[in-house]
């Protein structure tokens, strides 16, 4: 497989850097071709400017390079430390600039009967994606009744809104909690768990998000039909 790792951490000696290096070696060892977009090392310009927003804009070379990598990849891994309950700003800026009109959104027929190719369809359909996230907080803090909110809910805007929206199948995330307690023994265990996830990228079942054009939503409201998940609302209602 062709695998792209979009990676955001400023410190080459961080835990994230060590996990990224491990992932690259593991994937290459399994025969995959790996490319890494190391956003800090690339000094990625994260600021979307007014001149880049128009639909007919001539895209800059840095954007076209990242789009080419996405089209090349069979699987895309987004790796980052959880910062303020989301991805670091540099990665959000990567999404904002790389997901241009006609690439990340504005794809397919938009009419009374069809609201484009998105949520399961689109430019990146057929590809797989997975988040690799480290967090300082404890796992129970991110459990369904945990103070921080359930991790599935916190990651929903990324999983559903950034990965599934342009068509990618989204695998369950690889999560490392309580990073402050990392020592050699725990790091070895984390590597082992990560290795297993990387070995099964092609076979792991994706999160079963509902396809926009799969018949569960009414057009043009884009709300779930009354007989679909009756009485349920919120993020979980969009899971089959
Ligand atoms: P590092 O700080 O590099 O390392 C973490 C630990 O791993 C250290 O003990 C280090 O010694 C050890 N380690 C590093 N490399 C190795 C190695 N090769 N082998 C063995 N051990 C190693 N956390 C939350 O839960 N929620 C938040 O919303 C949140 N927001 C944050 C916002 C900001 C701006 C910042 C700076 C942090 C935030 N955090 C939050 C904490 C953050 O998620 C963690 O600090 C981060 O995930 C740790 O990853 P790192 O790569 O930076 O680890």
Automatic annotation (TrEMBL):
Keywords: Oxidoreductase
Keyword rRNA-binding in annotation: no
Domain Flavodoxin-like fold: 1-198
Database matches in SUPFAM superfamilies: Flavoproteins (SSF52218)
Pfam families named in the record: Flavodoxin_2
Keyword Nucleotidyltransferase included in the entry's annotation: no
Gene Ontology CC: one annotated term: cytosol
One function term, GO molecular function aspect: NAD(P)H dehydrogenase (quinone) activity
Family: Belongs to the NAD(P)H dehydrogenase (quinone) family.
Protein name: Flavodoxin family protein
